[in-house]
């Protein structure tokens, strides 16, 4: 027993030392200064999330959030490096230093604020249960016994997990593209996502005729940054405020979604 406690104490000390070394390095870091000195900003995106981010027919990244990242780099007069990731890896990539910021449909939630920081909102996303227009779903009870697709690690995943009625079969996929394929192939009956993705699917597959059936929640999205990077967060806040004021962020949103940014974004402090 004594030996066990001794090794347990050593293990705890080891973890503390590792954590101390990591946090001390983080404390000295200054991502904004690095971005300026390197002349480059690394932005994580999810290229499997149309119309936010996608690889187009020319093999290039495109979408509303690619446009936002491009504008950010241009306004700051630095080069843009887009870092492809998945919903589950967006925050780990940021924390481990593989990206400087995340612009990837990252909703501002209390849980995420325990781990990372955010700029003020630059956009908004609803979470809906989508299905074919002919489907009569109107209540969550209608999902019982059905296969409900959702992208793993997303706020969509967290929300449907929280509100689902017992007996709902939640099927998690690694990215939006795979979730969409599951719905269209009949592997899933419903898809928890954003309305914009349903619109994108309909454009490519008119016969799908997908539409929102149940609105679960409306989330605002922010640019994700490490919690230790206050200077970078403040600089991003200034940029978002200026870009909302001059209408450029609204123009990007309207170009891709056909509507103006909601007041949850434009009136946010």
TrEMBL record:
Keyword ATP-binding applies: no
The keyword Transmembrane belongs to this UniProt entry's keyword annotation: no
Signal peptide (from-to): 1-29
Pfam families with a match to the protein in the record: SBP_bac_3 (PF00497)
Keywords: Signal
Gene3D superfamilies, sorted: Periplasmic binding protein-like II (3.40.190.10)
Domain Solute-binding protein family 3/N-terminal: 40-260
Residue ranges crossing the lipid bilayer per the database entry: none
The protein, known as: Transporter substrate-binding domain-containing protein
Organism: Tardiphaga robiniae
